[in-house]
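User: I'm curious whether this sequence folds into something compact or stays loose and floppy. Could you predict its structure so I can see for myself?
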Amino acid sequence: MAAHQKTLPTRTTGGLVDDDDAVPDIDPTDTSGLLQERLQAYKHACGYLENYITATEKVQKAHAKEYEKVLKTVSDPLKEGHHFDQRLGGIAGLFENIRSNTQV
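Assistant: Here's the prediction. I'll summarize afterward.
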């Protein structure tokens, strides 16, 4: 039985491929090609990380604004607090704990 070998077609880029293409035009078996491939992967990983941090920063900034609104609602002592139970576990004590724990 004779082995029938068929050559597979190869893709050539013609030099028009930039560094963000899915099929790089470098030889990963060469040391410099492998280094270039790894540096490109690192560049993309850093870009993804930067996008993640930027999105997280926007979310945290929005939450901070909302927390400021909440803190303003409890910044003053409870009016007519003397009508409520002042002991530990009472309503006046609850509001005082909220206010003292949320002060900046």
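Summary: The helical segments are 31-73, 91-101. Residues 31-73 form the longest helix (43 residues).
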